[in-house]
Amino acid sequence: MESAKGAEQHAPEQSGPAEGPAQSMAPQGPQEDQRQLLYHEETIDLGGDEFGSEDSNNLVDKLDEPMMESVLISDSPNNSEDGAGDLGCLQDVVETVEGGTDHRRESVVDEEALDALSDDGESEGQDTPKDVSDMTPDSRASLKEDPEQEEVKDLPTFEHEGAEDLGPGDMRVPAAGPASGLSPRQPAPKDEPVPMCTIFSQPPPAGSQPRVLRDGFESQMVKSPSFSGVSEAAARTPPQVVQPSPSLSKFFGDTTSTNSLASDFFDSFTTSTFISVSNPNASPSIPESLSSLAATPVGEDSLGSADPSYSPGTERSESGVSTASLEIPQSPKPFSQIQAVFAGSEDPFATALSMSEMDRRNDAWIPGEATRNVLISVTTQQCSTVFVGKEDLTMPGLKFDNIQGDAVKDLMLRFLGEKAAAKRQVLNANSVEQSFVGLKQLISCKNWRAAVDLCGRLLTAHGQGYGKSGLPTSHTADSLQLWFVRLALLVKLGLFQNAEMEFEPFGNLDQPDLYYEYYPHVYPGRRGSMVPFSMRILHAELQQYLGNPQESLDRLHRVKAVCSKILTNLEQGLAEDGGMNSMAPENRQASVQLWRSRLGRVTCSMANCLLLMKDYVLAVDAYRSVIQYYPHQEPQLLSCIGRIFLQIGDIKTAEKYFQDVEKVTQKLDGLQGKIMVLMNRAFLHLGQNNFAEAHRCFTEILRIDPANAVANNNAAVCLLYLGRLKDSLRQLEAMTQQDPRHCLHESALFNLTTMYELESSRSLQKKQALLEAVASKEGDCFNTQCLKLA
Amino acid sequence: MMRLTKPTLFTNIPVTCEEKDLPGDLFNQLMRDDPSTVNGAEILMLGEMLTLPQNFGNIFLGETFSSYISVHNDSNQVVKDILVKADLQTSSQRLNLSASNAAVAELKPDCCIDDVIHHEVKEIGTHILVCAVSYTTQGGEKMYFRKFFKFQVLKPLDVKTKFYNAESDLSSVTDEVFLEAQIQNITTSPMFMEKVSLEPSIMYNVAELNSVNQAGECVTTFGSRAYLQPMDTRQYLYCLKPKKEFAEKAGIIKGVTVIGKLDIVWKTNLGERGRLQTSQLQRMAPGYGDVRLSLEAIPDTVNLEEPFHITCKITNCSSERTMDLVLEMCNTSSIHWCGISGRQLGKLHPSSSLCLALTLLSSVQGLQSVSGLRLTDTFLKRTYEYDDIAQVCVVSSAIKVES
């Protein structure tokens, strides 16, 4: 066919940062360059002559078929127009081998080919490294599992003991309550005379128990991860040091009063009428043996028969616990289940009726096949034992000590001295009530690290503290809410790895013990999942921040499938979970509304995830489909799509979406619509490189809404591009001073510090001033990186 | 100095909860208070807050290098006669980028001289921005300092081209040429291809074949995917027709001809623009040699072992020589020629042609290549070989009956 022989085709190779003397100087931050280059002489070796060229003749290819040839991208049009001079020089200096490197058959090589070869090598080198980045997380996950497995191994024996002690059925349980006489305790088979049992179920007054308990929380959180801290390591801190808050001290106080308080404590949040499940650690008097829910001894079978010699102590030493906690073995360690306690309501029907409509629709979820079978057997065979494999149970525990700490304060110590640092006062986990109220307080004043800490304490109180991962435990709606808050805050803080570690025991959030049905005596008649819907979203989204957006997408799709199924069920006149149910129309309506909004939520998450994956086409589709669930957000969604197109560089399509926004907002005149339109126009001008017009639009927004932080910041950014550094700085500084509560935002501060650096080499002072401003306003969740002080 | 790439939009991490959850409205309230979220739709990740470029980033051939140059008086003295010069040194030249070369009379403490420079990058490889500042101190001392900023200009696109000669449109002598251009994005960010066009040389007219007419609207063949992800390649197709005045001179278009060049305009983040042109694309016209043999007619499907006819056209492409040709037909394993091999075709004048009907049959089924024609110029004793002239599909006649 066509023979292009002899037609020399040159193509510049991607010269990359890898050439010649340039190597060490790959584009860097200006700061470094400054220093580095200061002493350079005027004559600079550009290393251009390391390029080579090759005649891309290749007989074999040409005979077979017309060949793909690389083409010299001469350079910008204007330059090539200049004529042969430029071009020639380019070819001499810059041209390199043609890029089809992979099938490099060197059958025809001319003299220049040597250079060519070396160049090829380089270019291939540049190509390879790109895939490396996304590897790790999986391997990490698998590694992580090991220790747990070990811990888990030990369990069956204990559980089995429990089971044996109990005998075949637990029906007799309530007969003889513990001395406490509190109803929640009733099911505890105190009366069982088996020796193993007594070890665990020593009533608190005996032995060192009370000490452990009274020690409060402070010490637990301080232990280093090397301590497998099964216990609270109480002994280390004298109890007096920390005055536990009232609620907590009561909670941990003597057993007689504990129970009711504990339940109050956890009841503070949920609306339903149940008595909280007490948990092993919090209520020492509860024996490990089974409660009314005895229905579920965890041991898979009786293989690991009770080995009396196997005491908890040995287990602990195995797991490398310091012996500091000799007393711990006595601490109540009901390795078996749930202290399912029910408030004495013998009539399940009454409670079933009392379960509110709202609970039902909120908690509704469709369990997987296996989980459903377990749940069915639990509900139908209340008297006999249902075996649930450990792998099907959720056994979470804190995975790391407190992350308490205040980066702002650390920086102040470093740059401003101790005196200034001492002025920094933020709330920490100790300074608030040890309850949900305190937790909310910490969250709202942006002390999220402290809030994470407090969640940890409250979970420890629930028996899911540090080192408890892999140990059987029971769940309540409250404990799951605590987990949700803790994990959500970790994600907000950007501590994704930590969140992942602690999320891991929850599996796919579909284990039977995460359903109300699993605890028929605690939550009589209540159905659905205890896992908050938002926690499912969080669980799915977390993966994308860890670099596995595909996994995120998979999880979101699963959530979405259930949402859709529930909606279908509702439309077909069934209950959410597909059961028969006669719902009042208004309740059905409310439920449809709720689930539609959840469907919208999950769709939006999918869109976000796709955006992160840079799959813009699908992301745009997903955002568009969110509109049907959140029609009131249509203008925002359309604007967002427009911005996506702007980001890609597709200005025309962006403009189309922005025009749609203008049409939509015309109907609902008002300030917000006006701002949105102006904002979009400004962005469009930015896309057209017209910073002056963009600045005008942002300023216009400020005229009608002077407190608009976004417009303020963006206007300042435009000023910089217009060459007005000082004006830009003035605007940003004014903004952060006027409304520090909203405007000390990461992005604004980042812009400010960037400009300080540009302005002068003595930017440190100004940055420190910013630090001081931050210190007085921001909580411990502040991301200090934006100050660029480090 | 700070490179001014386009600012980026801040993305936030939405964490929400429902009213019934423990934090109640708290998380949602926090998101509402966060200025980086979208007012009224906080769960959208892509906010509206602009952030300045965080590092120098990559710069690619054809893009515009913009930079902020700020000279700040850190001292507590007034300095005079400040002259700021920004030069860009490339491997081949040195360009002055400063907007003005006039000296500033004086600079007070804590004041600055600002300049934003732009330069369209036209060379690959190392560039060095040289900022030179000279001034006079209060004491009348002349001072001078320079700063260097070095950066690499990378190649953004990989362009490969391939020419296809149209199967000769049987009636005309001239051929259409199809150009396939593969354009690969070798940057690390998505790239919106705003324009990819072929500017033909004077000899050709070009038709772009990258859009289809759907219900009166021109739709690109690339669907909704208007952008190229990193390492993605996209194919563009163009059809080139020689202009009448060149086409008439049959045989003129031979050897190396200049086809034209590709003009590519792309945009990236927030409309950052880049433009490149390829060098002139050159094409080796099919080497017809002195004598061109082209097919005028051939059946596409023939029956096994049944004779079929083809019509060849033989053109004398040489400039002034009249040729005396002898036709030989050599059988291949599957194609058998019927008729006499070695017959005289008579005199053929320059730029004239004759048509020749030939008969052959195939002994093998399947897609068979017609090969084995030899033309010998008796004067020069030169033999021209013609293989793979065309393909025919050979089917069993039995099957044909059945069907």
From TrEMBL, chain A:
Residues in TPR repeats: 675-708
Organism: Delphinapterus leucas
PROSITE patterns for the chain: TPR
Intracellular or extracellular location(s): Endoplasmic reticulum-Golgi intermediate compartment; Nucleus
Coiled-coil residues: 654-681
Chief location category: endoplasmic reticulum
Keywords in alphabetical order: Coiled coil, ER-Golgi transport, Nucleus, Phosphoprotein, Repeat, TPR repeat, Transport
Biased composition (Acidic residues): 109-125
Subunit structure: Component of the multisubunit TRAPP (transport protein particle) complex, which includes at least TRAPPC2, TRAPPC2L, TRAPPC3, TRAPPC3L, TRAPPC4, TRAPPC5, TRAPPC8, TRAPPC9, TRAPPC10, TRAPPC11 and TRAPPC12. Interacts with CENPE.
Gene: TRAPPC12
Protein name: Trafficking protein particle complex subunit 12
Polar residues composition bias: residue spans: 311-325
GO biological process: endoplasmic reticulum to Golgi vesicle-mediated transport; Golgi organization; metaphase chromosome alignment; positive regulation of protein localization to kinetochore; regulation of kinetochore assembly
From TrEMBL, chain B:
Domain Trafficking protein particle complex subunit 13 N-terminal, first and last residues per copy: 1-153
Domain of life of the native organism: Eukaryota
Pfam families for the chain: TRAPPC13_C, TRAPPC13_M, TRAPPC13_N
GO cellular component: TRAPPIII protein complex
Domain Trafficking protein particle complex subunit 13 C-terminal: 299-394
InterPro entries: TRAPPC13, TRAPPC13_C, TRAPPC13_M, TRAPPC13_N
Domain spans labelled Trafficking protein particle complex subunit 13 middle: 157-286
Known partners and oligomeric status: Part of the multisubunit TRAPP (transport protein particle) complex.
Family, per entry: Belongs to the TRAPPC13 family.
Name of the featured protein: Trafficking protein particle complex subunit 13
Lineage: Eukaryota, Metazoa, Chordata, Craniata, Vertebrata
